[in-house]
Amino acid sequence: MLRATAVLPRGNASGAAVADRVLLDAEDRHRRRVVMTGEGGTTFLLDLAEATRLRDGDGLLLEDGSVVLVTARPEPLVEVTARSAADLARLAWHIGNRHTEVQVVGERLRIRRDHVLEDMLRGLGAALAPVDAPFDPESGAYDHAPAHGHAHDDDHHHGHDHSHHHHEHDHGHEHGHSHAHGHPHRHDG
Q1: For residue 139, what pLDDT is reported?
Q2: Which of 43, 54, 59, 151 could be cross-linked to 29 through a Cys-Cys bond (beta carbons 3.0 to 4.6 Å apart)?
Q3: Overall pTM surpassing 0.85 (yes/no)
Q4: In the chain, what are the domains?
């Protein structure tokens, strides 16, 4: 079976022999190692060093020198608009606060269809329009783990300590949340 071990960013595959194309939604475009079959029947192993977010128009370089083009599959999304840039920024904050992937398209936001989130956004004054379009969410500052969780498909150490050092201190305000990690915190002044 052929292997694809490199990604050619959009526009860098010109001149290469295009063997096939794969039509992938946003989730399927964030992979490290998986068998794929192109629309023309080319079966290959995507075998990258780390999970990589593939973009519409990228090329997957096969061992034989040919390229499989990546095409973003349209998905059921909702476009979010607001009356002002400040309102749109506030809506984006609420979306991000829920750790929801978002794509910024001009003065609109795109998210996957989610009736609970859509109801919340309407309640905050957003105008919503359902669309079927390719979804290319923002990568984020820490785009090394899969976007749909914090799991890793390989074992490695990040070089930082995961222990917790706690001490008594006065925050000067009420927290309004619980600490579910097995020991109490004092919040008295």
Answers
A1: 82
A2: 54
A3: no
A4: 2-72 (2.60.260.20), 74-134 (3.30.70.790)
